[in-house]
Specification:
The protein is an alpha/beta fold. The chain has nine helices and 32 strands.
C-alpha cells in the first residue's frame, strides 16, 4: 500500500498566516500539522508516500526532505492549481500505479492514527473506504448517506440540504478502481474534480464502498479556531520536560515543556504549555494551552490559549489570548488598555497594542 498526502491547498481560511507559509506547516504544540499525518502513515506500516504540493512546494520540501526522518520514502507531485481532491489522485496516477493507497489530507488531525483503518481495508478490500464523523453543520463538508445496514449509498459535496449529519473526514482508502472513476469525472460547479463524485461513481457502478465512524478526535485545521483547539488537545498529552534554563524566581505549574536552549526568567508558566528551543521568556505569564515556538521572545507580557510561531517578539503587552501569531511578528505596547487582545497576524507583521 502507498500513501498520497495532500499539501497543496492555498489555506485561505488561515490568511494572513498563509500568505507567506504553507497551512500544513503551521505548528501544533511546536510541530507542523503535516508531520502528525506523516507519522500516522509511517505508523500504519506504509513507506512509499507521494506528497501533492503546489505553490509552497519549496517550503514543504525543506521541512519534510526525503521523508527518511519519518521512516518514509517521499516523492513530490506538483499540482498546478488546487483543482480538487480527485484531481490530486489524477496527477498521482503514475506514482500510484495499481497499488492500493490511503489518501490523507495534510491539514487534518486525527487522534489515534489510522492503523485500524488500514488493517480493516487490507482485510475487507472494498473499492473505497471512508471515515465519517457527525458534525453540527454538514453543509460545510462532503456528506455521506447510509442505508439501514450502514452501507454507503450516496455522497454529496457541501450540500444545501444534507441527507445526514455524517461528514467525510480527510482520510480515504482506495483500490486502483478509483482511477477509472476519476477519469470519468467532469468539474463540479466549483470548478473542481470532487472525490465525492468519484466515490459516488464507484457506488453507481456497483462497487463496494465501506465507511467507518471516527471514534477518536478529528479536526480539519483550516481555520484559527480549530487550530487552537487542536493545539489545546495535543498539549493535554504533554509530559513535563525541562531541558532549558529556568531561574529560581520563576514558577512552572502543571505540565510544562521548556526545550533545550530556552530561557525562563522571573516568569510564571501554567501548563499545559511549551516553550521552544532558544526562546526567551522574561517577566511574563504564559497561560495554559500556549505554544511558544523556537527563537521567540516574550517579555513583560501575558499570553494564553495561543500559538506563537518562530522568532516572534511580544513585549510589554498586558494580555493576549486565543491568538495565532506568525513568524517574525513584533507585538509591542501602545497607549490605552483593553482587557484582552485577539490577534491573527501574518509573518513579519509589526503591531502596537495598548497596555
Amino acid at each position: 500500500m502507498k500513501a498520497l498526502v495532500l499539501a497543496g491547498g492555498a489555506g485561505t481560511r488561515l490568511r494572513p498566516i498563509t500568505h507567506t507559509s504553507a497551512k500544513q506547516l503551521v505548528p501544533v504544540a511546536n510541530k507542523p500539522v503535516l508531520f502528525y499525518g506523516l507519522e500516522a502513515v509511517a505508523a500504519a506500516g506504509i513507506r512509499e508516500t507521494g506528497i501533492v504540493v503546489g505553490d509552497t512546494q519549496a517550503e514543504i520540501e525543506a521541512a519534510v526532505g526525503d521523508g527518511s526522518a519519518f521512516g518514509l520514502q517521499v516523492t513530490y507531485l506538483r499540482q498546478s492549481a488546487p483543482l480538487g481532491l480527485a484531481h490530486a489522485v489524477a496527477i498521482a496516477r503514475d506514482f500510484l500505479g495499481e497499488d492500493d493507497f490511503v489518501m490523507y489530507l495534510g491539514d487534518n488531525f486525527i487522534v489515534g492514527g489510522i492503523n485500524g483503518l488500514v488493517d480493516r481495508f487490507a482485510h475487507d478490500r472494498p473499492a473505497a473506504q471512508i471515515m465519517l464523523t457527525p458534525v453540527a453543520d454538514p453543509r460545510q463538508f462532503g456528506v455521506a448517506e447510509l442505508d439501514s445496514t450502514g452501507r454507503v449509498i450516496g455522497l454529496e459535496e457541501k450540500p444545501r440540504q444534507p441527507k445526514s449529519d455524517l461528514a467525510l473526514v480527510g482520510v480515504y482508502l482506495f483500490t486502483a478502481a478509483i482511477h477509472e472513476a476519476v477519469a470519468e469525472l467532469k468539474p463540479s460547479g466549483r470548478g473542481e474534480l470532487e472525490i465525492t463524485d468519484a466515490i459516488q461513481w464507484l457506488i453507481d457502478a456497483g462497487q463496494r464502498v465501506e465507511s467507518t465512524l471516527v471514534t477518536g478526535y478529528w479536526k480539519d485545521t483550516g481555520n484559527v479556531t480549530d487550530m487552537l483547539e487542536v493545539n489545546r488537545l495535543v498539549l493535554e498529552s504533554l509530559d513535563t520536560r525541562v531541558e532549558g534554563t529556568v531561574d529560581a524566581e520563576s514558577e512552572l505549574i502543571g505540565r510544562v515543556v521548556v526545550e533545550e536552549g530556552a530561557v525562563v526568567e522571573r516568569s510564571r508558566i501554567v501548563g499545559p504549555a511549551i516553550v521552544g528551543a532558544g526562546a526567551r521568556v522574561c517577566g511574563s505569564y504564559i497561560g495554559p494551552f500556549t505554544s511558544i515556538a523556537g527563537g521567540c521572545s516574550i517579555s513583560h507580557s501575558e499570553i494564553e490559549y495561543s500559538i506563537v510561531l518562530p522568532r516572534a517578539s511580544i513585549s510589554g503587552v498586558g494580555r493576549i489570548e486565543a491568538s495565532l501569531i506568525g513568524h517574525d511578528v513584533e507585538v509591542t505596547r501602545a497607549p490605552a488598555t483593553p482587557r484582552a487582545h485577539r490577534l491573527v497576524l501574518g509573518d513579519h507583521s509589526k503591531v502596537q497594542i495598548s497596555c
